[in-house]
Amino acid sequence: MSENRKHLIEALIFATPEGMTALEIAGKVGISESRCRSLLKQIQKDRVGGAVEVVVEGDSWKMRIRKDLSNNVRKMVSIKSEFDSSVVKTLAIIALKAPVKQSEIVHLRGNKAYEHVVRLEQFGFISSKPHSRTKLLRLRQRFYDYFDIKKGEERYLFEQR
Q1: Are residues 93 and 46 in the same domain?
Q2: Which among 22, 88, 121, 159 has the fewest CB atoms less than 10 Å away?
Q3: pTM for the whole thing?
Q4: What is the dihedral of CA 135, 141, 142, 144, to 10 degrees?
């Protein structure tokens, strides 16, 4: 029964981004505040070294992404909110193949890739230069700065995890 309550507490603090006090959690789970604090400390200990940690801010317990990972995660989430997934996929292909001809990107991604290239240029991630009857696409420094990576590390950014 204790393990079940521990999981319930963990789910509560995960599902409540603003956090909850031990007293609030105890009331919802039906245990004493001291027992709740003990279980919260166990959960916190279990999460040490993981990507998500349990923290106490003021008197509220909550889960958050570990500080050393949060900047990169925020950037990756941000790009998905600024671009739909098809634009992000086009950027991934450009990043992996750069410098690459726009005609090759269009061949791989379809005619919508023309719009994607325009948006990615406007955002400053790529540059284009006339190249025969197409354009040559290159990554700009803004791409590397935005994702906090060095040139040559592009493939790691878009790897499946």
Answers
A1: no
A2: 159
A3: 0.52
A4: 110
